[in-house]
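REVIEWER CHECKLIST
Item 1: Sequence provided? yes
Item 2: Single chain? yes
Item 3: Sequence as submitted:
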Amino acid sequence: MSTSASKTLETFDNPRPQHDFTIRIRIPEFTCLCPKTGQPDFATVHLDYIPDQHCVELKSLKLYIWSFRDQGAFHEAVCNEILDDLVAAISPRYLRLRTEFNVRGGIYTDVIAEYRQPGWQAACRVELP
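Item 4: Structure as written out by the authors:
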């Protein structure tokens, strides 16, 4: 596998597709460029998903995230682009992506996008004493 930026997301078979389980990934070094000024924008990407048949391979995810470094993108657009690409690659049961952008001009921006597989229902939350 290459160590240069790539838009390719590799996958592997879910080792337990019969279970709903959550994979949480935090990526604290996301960067892209402001499409208006060309200045860098920095964010932490929070990815939570319940896989169906496939999981995203982490090194390919890292290289995918690097591919945004020289790309101009509005916060809202980049969050939804990442969500769409992940859904296309792994077809999860559920995916929630949060892009938590660092302050710029005194303003913090968080963008949250979600996907639910048609017909999938989350299990009821269990509250333990």
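Item 5: Key structural point noted by reviewer: Helices lie at 58-66, 75-90.
Item 6: Recommendation: ____
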